[in-house]
Write a structure and sequence with these properties.
By secondary structure, the chain is mainly β.
């Protein structure tokens, strides 16, 4: 799913991204991924996406007429064995892209182990050939959702 631009910094919004991959509701687990996205220290949005376990979800922000603005986030959540103390651990694979001259430039890719319900923070500084000074920060919190409640694709 694509959205044209983020409203003002104080506006809260929810975006359900498209999910790639095929999984049946009876055998899969869905995760809600809440994000807080800042650019150069200013809040630009609080989107959320839903991803089936093992499938990749995508969030894209691009502004028509502004080929150097926007970002694209690919995220995949994979369940792992439970962590000590009975807490559920997951593997998060996250790739962040910026835009330059209308083309996507991969800024960074992270693969980490996290606990469901705990915040995970990422920083994505500008990367050549992008303009210096477009630094993004991303905080992610994951939770479970009922797979039958996910929106139709």
């Amino acid at each position: 799913m694509k959205f044209s631009s983020f409203p003002g910094a104080a506006t809260l919004f929810l975006v359900l991204a498209s999910i790639s991959g095929v999984a049946t509701a009876q055998t899969s687990t869905a995760y809600r991924i809440d994000m807080t996205i800042s650019r150069n220290g200013s809040l630009i949005g609080k989107p959320a996406i839903v991803a089936e376990a093992g499938a990749q979800a995508e969030l894209t922000d691009q502004k028509p007429g502004k080929p150097d603005d926007g970002f694209r986030i690919l995220v995949k959540v994979s369940p792992l064995s439970d962590a000590p103390g009975g807490k559920e651990s997951i593997k998060l694979d996250l790739t962040f892209f910026g835009r330059f001259n209308g083309k996507w430039i991969q800024r960074d890719q992270h693969s980490i182990t996290a606990l469901v319900g705990k915040n995970v923070s990422f920083a994505f500084p500008s990367k050549p050939p992008e303009s210096v000074g477009k630094d993004y920060d991303l905080v992610i919190t994951t939770s479970h959702v009922n797979p039958s409640a996910t929106p139709a694709r």
